[in-house]
Design brief:
globular; homodimer; 10 helices; alpha/beta; seven-stranded mixed β-sheet
């Protein structure tokens, strides 16, 4: 199970009752945060989730509304007596930007490790999760992120019995281990059925629509995408500022055949996103306007 | 009239429903902000006051909870198309710290002027206001600020007539101007009564009690002072972290013979300050526990 919370939905500047766009992803006792603008630590507390197990923070880019909350978040994690290292991921310049911001957070009781992205697409892992960073199209270098959890095939008891595999090996085979025994080599493929559908979510903000978004979001259970403007006539403005309209986000969701679309990163001028959603759902029916604190549990198909 | 709003009352970290300590002072269409932690721009919007006329931001010191909101505040002022220069005031290192934070707010449509404080006490002015910065006692260099508005004596019509001063000079004399006429020199002293009581407020946070606070806060109409801990038994902790208890702040208020005391900069562990106030008022009766958004108009005695 992956637990997801959209901590905020604002773009450009934090507003009363609308935190800046940020996503928290929890899995197996660990958390990943994507983006950390001014106030993200308060949004997290409001949601009731703890900053203690955040082990990785990924940044889409370094505009202030996506990173200005970092010094405060680091200090709060330090005050909670964190000792484990924290990994930061982001476009080139990460070490420089984090170093500058740490002018006001110089002393921390934990190590910070920076991973700078330089390729158009980069893969890395976090616990059992696979992360994929992919470059998008904003007025500065900016990345989207996909997070996936693969699921191997079902263990076939009958097959194992048929092949005479001793029960003591079953658990290890089920976990994907290759085992050398006195009687020969046992591989998971011998006893596992076809790989089952895993979980996937994709987050991208501050970008024009791109093919890289479609290919990386493809098949996501949840696709969280910026929608800076609800009004269709803001198309030109979206193009100029390298953002998207709700409608453009919906077209991406349809092309990528995702499970659900949540919109976020609203312009401060957009007071209420809901009135635009009927039009959006004509393009992609399973779309909803993200709200601060909106959360969801992504579960395997037959998981309780 | 001086308009004062305590935008937040928290210390260390912003909390849901408690912004970080910051004070906004409005006078004659201009504003001074003292301290700007994470979320201060949201607190300001919640109060309904505009960031547009902020012409000066004073910093007590550079711990993150007093300055981390600066990049976002600057960008928001820029988005509001500010063109006038902004003056920043703070202890030595201001230019370096602001420069580092501007890594994420590099482009602004207005000029930033930094005034670094280096003396134990420094005076400067802003419009008709006199500001006094005074060094206090924290674990880094930290300043308190007093803001005063003097008031000259009342114009004495009878005296002016007696001296045969032409009416065309009255207004200029009333404003304190010295005038050379064909018949001789006219001075304000000739027609003004004794100076009347002006307005004064003092703000200090992140410090142990000091004599400099007493002398600089002396006679303030409003004294806004940190009270990190309400419990009298946190005295030792206050000393160790270079903060104050409510009781210590009240003693300062009594010594400085101020009009009112507002407490602020509460520890995150202090959920409700009110239960401690009865004890505090035994030391200084006109004390109250500051609340986010608490505001007041300071007026001259006979001002409508």
């Amino acid at each position: 199970m992956i637990d997801v919370c959209l901590l905020g939905t604002g773009g450009m500047m934090p507003l009363p009752y609308r935190w800046l766009t940020s996503l928290m992803v929890r899995y197996n006792g660990h958390s990943i945060l994507i983006d950390c603008g001014e106030g993200t630590q308060i949004a997290l507390k409001e949601k009731g989730w703890s900053p203690n197990p955040i082990d990785m923070i990924c940044f889409t880019h370094y505009h202030a509304d996506h990173i200005s909350g970092l010094p405060g978040m680091l200090l709060t994690m330090g005050n909670a007596e964190r000792k484990d290292p924290l990994t930061l991921v982001g476009p080139r310049g990460l070490t420089r930007v984090v170093g500058a911001l740490r002018t006001i957070a110089p002393e921390l009781p934990f190590e910070i490790r920076c991973r700078e992205l330089s390729e158009a697409e980069e893969s890395f892992s976090f616990e059992e999760l696979d992360l994929q960073a992919f470059r998008v199209n904003h007025n500065v270098v900016c990345y989207g992120y996909s997070i996936s959890l693969d699921r191997i095939g079902k263990f076939q008891v009958e097959k194992a019995k048929e092949l005479g595999i001793e029960m003591k090996y079953w658990n290890r085979l089920q976990k994907g281990e290759r085992i050398e025994t006195e009687k020969g080599i046992l591989t998971p493929e011998m006893v596992l059925g076809p790989a089952r559908k895993g979980l996937k979510l994709t987050y991208c903000t501050d970008t024009r629509p791109t093919e890289s978004i479609v290919s990386n979001a493809a098949g996501s259970d949840l696709f969280i995408c910026e929608g800076m403007y609800g009004e269709a006539d803001k198309q030109e403005k979206a193009r100029e500022h390298k953002h998207m309209t709700f409608q453009e986000a919906a077209v991406l969701a349809r092309k990528a055949q995702v499970g659900q679309l949540w919109l976020t990163h609203y312009s401060p001028s957009l007071t209420r996103p809901e009135p635009f959603m009927d039009e959006v759902r004509k393009i992609f029916p399973r779309a909803c306007a993200g709200k601060d604190g909106k959360s969801m549990e992504l579960r395997f198909d037959d998981e309780e």
